[in-house]
Amino acid sequence: MEPIKHEEGIFYMEKDGRRIAEITYAPAGDGTINANHTYVSDELRGGGVAGQLLDALADYAREKNLKILPSCSYVVAKFSRGSKYDDVNALAK
């Protein structure tokens, strides 16, 4: 498995110089970031890569004391399935 890399606004994996998976975010104000896009290449789908990227984003949010606003359909679905991310979910009650 390729390592997860981080640059401002994106966590991603590369292979042979091409991006094969990513989750992107943007500042959303008031200590929140908007998780707005997730992509995993066909070769990695079904292998839990999107979850690893979301975990990396959640860890980043915890480190920076941020909340995540889920607008990407993948993140919305993951946030609705349990409490693993409640501490960083901007919409959690």
TrEMBL record:
<dbReference type="Pfam" id="PF14542">
    <property type="entry name" value="Acetyltransf_CG"/>
</dbReference>
<protein>
    <submittedName>
        <fullName>GNAT family acetyltransferase</fullName>
    </submittedName>
</protein>
<feature type="domain" description="N-acetyltransferase">
    <location>
        <begin position="3"/>
        <end position="90"/>
    </location>
</feature>
<dbReference type="GO" id="GO:0016740">
    <property type="term" value="F:transferase activity"/>
</dbReference>
<dbReference type="InterPro" id="IPR031165">
    <property type="entry name" value="GNAT_YJDJ"/>
</dbReference>
<keyword id="KW-0808">Transferase</keyword>
<dbReference type="InterPro" id="IPR045057">
    <property type="entry name" value="Gcn5-rel_NAT"/>
</dbReference>
<dbReference type="InterPro" id="IPR016181">
    <property type="entry name" value="Acyl_CoA_acyltransferase"/>
</dbReference>
